[in-house]
Design goal:
alpha/beta; Rossmann fold; 7-stranded mixed beta sheet; 42% helix; globular; binds S-adenosylmethionine
């Protein structure tokens, strides 16, 4: 993997205000991937492929990644081709909820999920992701702090109210489900590491 190519993608994303994972959060996630060495990763929210390429660089897994925005999807596909890793990555253009439904119907399995799509939808995606996740599989969920709004929802304006409420529900669910082991980190915009301890009747 050409690390220089990844740096160029990062610079261009920043120039064009494309939201990409922050450095400290990325390093935490890559640390887990290096140790865990998953075989199959699902990413929700490709953007232009920056995080996907970083993930491919540290482990031998294949990646399935979902993006709704057509322009970003095309740029990501070009970036994957330029990085020479089209054989290990399957980019899917579509709405994550519909793609998740299809993956579940197809009995697909993943041992690592990077949840980085629309923040108000994490709670809706969770039951699908839990069906797709193998035992001991890990979900890495980014932006769970929503710039401090999750901790201090007194400041939330009308526009963000549902998103914040949904994220609070997501965190409540992943921290109270006895089949999950969850740690929430107040780093960058907040991230959560959620491990599926055992499969139950979700199948
Ligand atoms: C934070 S960005 C992803 C950043 C990327 N993971 C990275 O770090 O390089 C979130 C992406 O999710 C996409 N997105 C938003 N709603 C979506 C949906 N319903 N289904 C799939 N992707 C969606 C956005 O277009 C955006 O590119």
């Amino acid at each position: 993997m050409d690390l220089n190519c990844i740096q160029q993608i990062k610079l261009k994303a920043k120039e064009n205000f494309v939201p990409i994972v922050r450095d400290e959060t990325l390093n935490a996630m890559l640390g887990i991937l290096k140790e865990k060495q998953p075989t199959r990763i699902l990413e929700i929210g490709t953007a232009v492929g920056y995080s996907a390429l970083n993930m491919l660089a540290v482990c031998n897994a294949d990646v399935v990644t979902i993006e709704k925005n057509e322009q970003r999807f095309e740029e990501a596909c070009n970036n994957f081709a330029e990085a020479g890793c089209t054989g290990r990555i399957k980019p899917i253009l579509g709405d994550a909820i519909e793609v998740l439904e299809t993956l579940v119907k197809g009995s697909e399995r993943f041992d690592f999920v990077f949840l980085d799509g629309p923040k108000g939808q994490y709670i809706k995606y969770l039951p699908f992701i839990l069906k797709l996740l193998t035992e001991n599989g890990v979900i890495f969920a980014d932006n769970v702090g929503l710039l401090g709004l999750v901790a201090d929802s007194g400041k939330v304006n009308h526009k963000n109210r549902t998103m914040v409420r949904n994220m609070q529900q997501f965190l409540q669910q992943v921290t109270t489900d006895v089949n999950l082991e969850t740690q929430v980190f107040d780093v960058d915009d907040g991230y959560a590491i959620i491990k599926l301890k055992q499969k139950n009747d979700r199948k």
